[in-house]
Amino acid sequence: MDYKSEMKQLRDILNEAGYRYYVLDDPAMDDYDYDRLLRKLEELEAAHPEEVTPDSPTQRVGGEALESFQQVVHPVPLESLQDVFSPEEVEEFAQRMMETLETVEYSVEPKVDGLSVALEYRNGLFVQGATRGDGQVGEDVTENLRTIKSIPMTLPDKLPRLIVRGEVFMPKNVFHKLNRQREENGEPLFANPRNAAAGSLRQLDPKVCAKRLLDIRVFNLQLAEGKAFSTHGETIRYIASQGFQTIPHKLLGTAEEVNGEIFRLGENREDLPFDMDGAVVKLNSLQDRAIIGSTAKCPRWAIAYKYPPEQKPSRVLDIVVQVGRTGVLTPKVVVEPVRLAGTTVTNATLHNQDFIDEKDIRIGDTVVLQKAGEIIPEVVEVLRELRPEGTEPYHLPANCPVCGAPVVRDEDGAAIRCTGAECPAQLHRNITHFASRDAMDIDGMGPAVIGQLIDKGLVKTPADLYFLTIEQLADLERMGKKSAQNAVNAIAASKERGLERLLYALGIRQVGQKAGKVLAAYFGTFDALNQATVEELTAIDDVGGITAAYIREWLDSPQSQHLIGRLREAGVGMEAVKQVSGQQFKGMTFVLTGALERFTREEAAALIEGRGGKASGSVSKKTAYVVAGENAGSKLRKANELGIPVLTEDEFAAMLEQ
Ligand code: AMP
After folding, report:
1. Which H or E element spans position 407?
2. How confident is the model over 205-255, as pLDDT tens digits?
3. pTM, entire model
4. How far apart are CA 600 and CA 192, in angstroms?
5. Which of 78, 196, 350, 505 has CB atoms 3.0–4.6 Å from 132's, for a disulfide?
């Protein structure tokens, strides 16, 4: 067989296997065989790049990153839905339908809590996918959608044009795993699967999106040139026959049945792989839909029933207090475990003393808990009639539960704070924050490793990280010699992050990333900042009086000065990265490709940005320079095609020096 036919055959086999696995949930090939055939196809494609087709399964892993998303005008608008909140409102809706129509059939289906997208096919080939946007104009996220394995790249029917609409979501199990990983890496958590899906689908780099394992359920036929249907049920059957995963629907005749189905869906929502934020009721007949019509934003022939947030009572077993990175004491209730909106809840935040006082929450009370879309449950109210005798109002302790130092209440808020500079709870969070991605970005120094280092007494301040040896690190659990070496390298690399990140990393109250940048740009060196008076600090744009006072207070503390001394001793840079540079790259876009030796991609990007330029992931006519390291691939090719100047790493480094 010639290579072209072999490639086609491999694509067909793999696409069919993917369909069975991702759409029908009925795998027909084991992973080993799949990977083996995929490898074979990859090899053939590498040898014959001109034969790579858009429907190849190799094109789903995420292509090159984009600079921005293009706008897409939806030929058929992606309408919104009118919300209703009670069975009575569902009956009123049915009443309205019956005023105009003789017989009515409803489709009732789960409302998937994700993001609406339109998928467009031309002659059976996936050509474009766009977010809903404002319903009329969305964003082109085709490359990200290609990474969703249950979206077919080709359809059996080759209609000139077909557009379907579906809801992209992050499966609940993927979401929990992702958040666990983010927690370990000290990254901010996603509040819920919807936010996680939205964040993933709007990634400019499709490779990031590919890792998020999004999925989709299709629920509407927007347009099908050359096909006619009379009911919603027919269109959904047709869509399913074309290889899409569709949203299941039930056809019913009366409001009573509809309400019964809404209730049943709500009861079974835990079993679904996606979060459901309601049930949708639609007319089944397409002709009836046209008769009933739409308002400017929503169809009149459909409604979305929103379930009230689930609430359950539970008994308060205890109130415990956690100490955060900035020393804030956060009280939590520990409750008898109760099943709530899909998870077992054992505690809920009480925010602060004011919240406790206002609701008068006491140990022994029965409280009503609720999870409203977010993962953190909250206390709605206390059931006073169930309060046992002998309970007492709760007050936060006067001393930090971790280190015993006295606590004080913020003058400007409800927060209560530990005053112990060496509080171990703060230490763990301080160091985790210091090493985190946006701060000193020390790869491999997540909360778990830092916890072990503190427990062993190896680090007492962030500066101690810089004095760790490979042997000390290799001794930790789940660390070999190799990862210990990597950790030491990562720690060493972080010395050059510059003053702006260092200031943020130090965890000075009110000094976030932005203030770090502003201060570094203004003072240039730590020593200059160290001399600044409160008045001088306050005079800087973006630095308020309270922040200025916190900064001065921090600088004046002997512990801070000791810490700075140790960081200096370790060789941590205390100058602004941007200070040495002007705006020599203003208005220029650089693309980095291949492996660079002297810098990581992030460092090189920071150096470019520090000089007023932009670092982008994809080459276009607007690119000023492409910096090509070892093994540069398609971006280098594209630069040559477009005639964009290409720099070696040495040339780039020389340019930075100018
Ligand atoms: P809302 O965003 O609250 O106006 O709700 C309307 C949105 O629900 C639509 O834009 C769809 O993205 C989404 N949706 C989820 N599941 C369905 C479904 N089965 N039928 C219609 N819309 C749905």
Report:
1. strand 407-409
2. 898 899 999 999 999 999 999 999 999 999 999 999 999 999 999 999 999
3. 0.62
4. 32
5. 78
